[in-house]
Design goal:
Blueprint (H helix, E strand, L loop, with lengths): L1 E5 L6 H11 L5 E4 L10 H11 E4 L3 H6 L10 H13 L2 H8 L4 E4 L2 E4 L15 H6 L8 E4 L6 E5 L5 E4 L3 E3 L5 E5 L13 E7 L4 E7 L3 H10 L4 H9 L2
Parallel strand pairs: 1-2, 2-3, 5-6, 6-10
Antiparallel strand pairs: 1-11, 4-5, 7-8, 7-10, 9-12, 11-12
Helix pairs in contact: 7-8
The structure holds fe (ii) ion.
């Protein structure tokens, strides 16, 4: 059984289509860790593609923002402008769908959560070694997949000691060890690599592998500018920041 694990799509339809094409025929399903919308110009097509393809989805802070569960004052000015624009695009059904997403979900031996398994609705960023290792007491499954920082990374705890890595990785899942894995961002990578980022979780081969996929950044940028969204949201896609 193999899953594509996707997070932080952020209404970037070009990136989402490229990722789904990249793993087509290779995976049995996709799971989504939230932030389907916000920043990009295609919220509705992205919601519809993910609702159709994903076997499990959880809410991110952008779903909470556009459905009124999180005050927009929580966001920086660019995210706030994008959330307000996105909220205007959504009809009742799409808003209700995003509002129905839970903060956590279980798929096989994995917990899915957008930000942190510890207080998922406080939207903490797990970036450093310490921040990741501290979160292990907040989930009881063997694996926990997260997004939110838009940077791929993993943390592992077991009898032979802690292991932590960031950037692209391809790890073998060892028995007796537990793992916290950030799968990076499909639609707005922030690790200075502009390619779309996601993970393949191969339960049979017991591996998790980060994949990077080239997509039509120019078209995604053009749509963001045409929609009147902040120009910075278009420009950052070019250099992955
Ligand atoms: Fe995000």
């Amino acid at each position: 059984m193999r899953y594509a694990v996707l997070s932080d799509i952020h209404a970037n339809l070009e990136a989402l289509r490229a990722v789904l094409a990249d793993c087509r025929g290779e995976v049995d399903g996709a799971v989504c860790l939230g932030d389907l919308v916000g920043y990009g110009a295609d919220p509705i097509p992205c919601i519809e593609l993910l609702a159709e393809r994903a076997v499990a989805l959880v809410a991110g802070n952008h779903e909470y923002g556009v459905t009124g569960k999180l005050a927009l004052g929580w966001f920086n000015s660019y995210a706030r402008a994008a959330a307000a624009w996105t909220a205007e695009q959504l009809d009742v059904d799409h808003r209700a769908y995003l509002g129905s997403l839970a903060l956590t979900a279980l798929v096989a031996e994995a917990t899915l959560v957008h930000a942190s398994p510890s207080r998922p609705d406080e939207w903490e960023y797990l970036i450093t070694a310490e921040e990741g290792f501290d979160a292990f007491s907040a989930f009881d499954t063997r694996l926990c997949f997260i997004g939110h920082s838009h940077r791929p990374a993993y943390w592992s705890l077991g009898a032979t000691g802690p292991v932590w890595g960031s950037g692209a990785f391809d790890i073998a899942l060892e028995s007796g060890r537990r793992y916290l894995v950030n799968v990076g961002s499909v639609g707005q990578p922030r690790d200075r690599d502009p390619r779309a980022c996601y993970a393949i979780w191969d339960r049979t081969a017991r591996r998790i592998t980060i994949r990077r996929v080239t997509y039509d950044v120019a078209e995604a940028r053009r749509k963001i500018i045409a929609a009147g969204l902040p120009r910075l949201l278009a420009d950052r896609l070019e250099n992955g920041t």
